[in-house]
Amino acid sequence: MTQEKLGPPTAPAVAEPPRAWTRSHLLDVDDFAPAELEVVMQTTDAMKEVLGRDVPRVPALRGKTIVTLFYEASTRTRASFELAGKALGADVINISAGGSSVEKGESLIDTVRTLQAVGADVLVMRHWAAGAPYLVARHLQAAVINAGDGAHAHPTQALLDLYTIRNHLGDVRGRRVVIVGDIEHSRVARSNIWSLLAMGAEVIVCGPPTLLPAGLRSQKASRPTVEENGREAMALPPVQVETNLERALEGAEVVMTLRLQKERMQGGLLPSLREYATLYQLNEERMSRAQTGALVMHPGPMNEGIEISPGLASSLQSVIEEQVTNGVAVRMAVLYLIARGTKQ
Ligand code: CP
């Protein structure tokens, strides 16, 4: 691999993206080949090295403008994209729908065209509607990165989760990964299922029947398109399904638990939070069924005492904070791979 110097001698070299990377947007990981996932993992390694320096900055994206546009709340994703962009020398502008001209009735397309007109090279967007980044990508020359669209996809979360798992276990092929909780409303679960299966992991989803997508077992793999913005876009590849958490955890090497996403629930899906916690809370006693030292993961934000016990969340098995930390390097990698292809 050739090394291209991206800054003055004191600045680090960042490897030129391998040829496996040809994408100009990152909308989901549902159609990623293992080689593309490898490119992101290797580029993240390089970014980790940059972040470990005394001055964790490189001028790789100097002159580029990154706009984060969030129509939904965020702490981790938004902060890490901002830090990632700045670490790469880009200008970063953060816009929330609240407080912007969206409140005056400006449409999504008019908003993103405005941001492009003021110079955005990359638009990092989170939206409550599944498919919104696909629609935007069709209307912009700027690159679009999906930072979460409704219950559909959260590709950079899946990438940072994969990176974190590999840091501990190496190759994920054949590893038993259990995803527990509100699968139905979880964009994190969906994107993780695609990337983990692509890399050869064994994926088991577990939750109450009302929080498992209908027909999960029988659905064929299909990729979402903007025309499929709805139920069809939510299709998942076949995975193992288990409604009993104790059984699901037998032999697990990684357990990822999810928040109940009440903001996307129609209501009436659970008898009570107490009953949910009784049957599905991940705790120390339940984790004893998994392999010794199995990783405990959570994408955050957590509701400790509901989907996870406070003791387990802060235990030695927990890699939850490490997931957040890795989010910066992974998002640097994604921004670098995507933004290098935008106009100069
Ligand atoms: N995991 C995640 O997307 O967290 P935020 O909502 O805080 O960005």
Features:
2 domains; Rossmann fold; disordered N terminus; 344 residues; binds phosphoric acid mono(formamide)ester; five-stranded parallel β-sheet; four-stranded parallel β-sheet; 11 helices; single chain; alpha/beta
Give an overview in words:
- The strands form three sheets. The chain has a five-stranded parallel sheet. Strands 4-3-5-6 form a four-stranded parallel sheet, with helices on both faces.
- It starts with a strand and ends in a 5-residue tail after the last helix.
- It has eleven helices and eleven strands.
- Strand 1 (3-5) and strand 2 form a beta hairpin.
- Helix content is 34%, strand content 15%.
- Helix 5 (155-169) crosses helix 6 (187-198).
- The chain is of the alpha/beta class and 344 residues long.
- It folds into two domains: 34-153 and 325-341, 3-Layer(aba) Sandwich (Rossmann fold), CATH 3.40.50.1370; 155-319, 3-Layer(aba) Sandwich (Rossmann fold), CATH 3.40.50.
- The structure holds phosphoric acid mono(formamide)ester.
- Phosphoric acid mono(formamide)ester (CP) binds at residues 74-78, 148, 154, 157, 299-301.
- Phosphoric acid mono(formamide)ester binds next to helix 2.
